[in-house]
Automatic annotation (TrEMBL):
The keyword Zinc-finger applies. Coiled coil: none annotated. This is Histone-lysine N-methyltransferase ATXR2. Gene3D superfamilies: SET domain. One of its GO terms (biological process) is methylation. PROSITE patterns: SET. Residues 46-460 form the SET domain. It comes from Hibiscus syriacus.
């Protein structure tokens, strides 16, 4: 039986209009083109263009020739978040995702948090402490932790004495050659929470203005209820951290809407025709950067985890849906203002839907760790220097075990990358080069690309068999007709 959410019923018209692809009406289509052109010029990636392509909607096309391995474009994320479990291993800027502090702080903090027990997250599967409280949500939970499985893979490690950890944290202990890996110093959240850290004042301010002022749990938070906010965050951490990303998308839209409205009002002051209440057209405009992504309802498109039988699919999707509404309810108390409420409510439904896009488009946020580079550097030193350095560094490496190389991991929405279509024989890939040390997406050519050609990436492992590929791509809602698939089709 299909459950109908009361919010769905109340706002069905708004939801339909918000879910309608922007290209349906001609004038919106022009605006969409304009939006992408602005985005491309802002990102200075003049080598590409976003064009409508009949079958798949949008696509990214080369405006110039690219050589093999050449950078095609870099894409700044619109919203992104580090996975909560990854926060123990990697201290990064909450806005640009660069590693911050120092090599010593990165290592010391990790041990410190692990001894506090924060590191014993249920993600590594040895604990059963979470099963009681989140029984109903286990499906969603498992689904995420499967993807986050790389972190906290605790292998056999040798623990460090507390003293050694403290001296790393407080800066008394300097590891040999760590000055070769300087990191920006840590800037605290201007709102006073202890969850957001930054690489610079600029990042701190940009984050505050675009998302964080509504989602900060500190003293200066502009949220309506810090208690509700804390509950929301706890629920997301226990169930699915994609809700944190959805909250960021909603917060981004509310703040953009307020800015639009303020400038609109100041323009109209002279004529004294002040608009009261919510202006849906301004709200739609504020929502556009996010709505332009691919849309399917999250609970319809989230892929069925392997451990769930196909016959339980309905129950599974129902639970996911329940989870999303619980989350939304908590968020509503935390950040909605009375004035925006009716429209924001339907908008939030869409934010929850839009997170389907985050899951689907596989837009992973990955930033390589300087801690890994550091230990590789030590390993590469000439024999005598290496021996000398290892006297100090080896105990730390032994204590870290395989985890020394854990990178920053999260999920993000990249507006240009998300326009790229799939091919099983792609001409480009998302690839971080040595110099790419922040949360931006980088697209690199796999072979020469000619001007006018569509730039494609593979959403899946393209070495799988034809049947396996089509099955995975069915989750994205299409059947692949790339040259490889046409060739292999039985
Ligand atoms: Zn930063
Ligand atoms: Zn804060």
């Amino acid at each position: 039986m299909e459950l109908i959410c009361p919010i769905d019923q109340r706002c069905s018209d708004q939801i339909t209009s918000l879910l309608r692809p922007p290209s349906v009406r001609f004038c919106t289509f022009i605006k969409t083109q304009e939006y992408f052109e602005q985005l491309i010029s802002k990102r200075r990636c003049q080598g590409i263009k976003v064009k409508q392509n009949g079958e798949f909607g949008k696509g990214v096309f080369a405006e110039t020739d690219f050589e093999e391995e050449e950078l095609v474009f870099k894409d700044q994320m619109l919203v992104g978040a580090q996975h909560p479990s990854n926060k123990i291993d990697c201290l990064v800027c909450s806005y640009c995702f660069k590693f911050i502090g120092s090599i010593e702080q990165q290592i010391g903090r990790r041990f410190y948090l692990k001894t506090l027990g924060i590191g014993i997250s249920s993600h590594n599967g040895c604990e059963s402490n979470s099963s009681d409280e989140v029984e109903d949500n286990e499906f969603a939970y498992n689904h995420r932790s499967e993807q986050n499985g790389a972190s906290s893979s605790s292998s056999s490690t040798i623990p460090l004495p507390t003293m050694a950890v403290e001296s790393l944290m407080n800066g008394e202990m300097a590891l040999p050659y760590s000055n070769k890996f300087p990191l920006p110093s840590i800037i605290l959240c201007p709102g006073g929470c202890e969850e957001a850290f930054y690489c610079s004042k600029l990042c701190a301010e940009a984050d505050w203005d675009s998302f964080h002022c509504l989602l900060c749990t500190g003293e200066k938070s502009e949220s309506c209820s810090r208690d509700a906010l804390l509950k929301f965050i706890q629920h997301a951490n226990e169930t699915n951290d994609i809700f944190l990303l959805a909250a960021k998308a909603i917060s981004f839209t509310i703040l953009r809407y307020r800015k639009f409205k303020a400038s609109h009002l100041s323009k109209q002051e002279n004529t004294a025709s002040i608009i009261l209440g919510t202006d849906p057209s301004l709200l739609l405009e504020a929502w556009k950067p996010i709505s332009i992504g691919h849309k399917r309802r999250w609970w319809d498109c989230i892929s069925l985890p392997d451990d769930i039988d196909a016959s339980d699919e309905g129950t599974f999707r129902g639970q996911i849906r329940e989870l999303a509404f619980t989350s939304l309810q908590l968020l509503k108390e935390a950040i909605f203002d009375k004035e925006c409420e009716p429209c924001i409510l339907s908008l939030s439904i869409n934010a929850i839907n839009i997170i389907g896009m985050f899951e689907l488009n596989n837009l992973d946020l990955v930033v390589a760790s300087p801690v890994e580079d550091y230990f590789l550097y030590i390993d590469d030193l000439p024999h005598s220097e290496k021996k000398e350095a290892e006297k100090i560094t080896q105990p730390y490496l032994d204590a870290l075990g395989e985890d020394y190389s854990i990178c920053c991991q999260g999920t993000a929405f990249f507006p240009l990358q998300s326009c790229m279509n799939h091919s099983c024989c792609p001409n480009a890939k998302a690839f971080k080069r040595e110099e790419d040390r922040d949360g931006q997406a980088t697209i690199v050519a796999l072979r020469p690309i000619c001007k006018g050609e569509e730039v494609t990436i593979s959403y899946i492992d393209e070495d799988l068999s034809f049947e396996e590929r089509q099955a995975l791509l069915a989750d994205y809602g299409f059947r692949c007709r790339c040259p490889k698939c046409l060739d292999e089709e039985p």
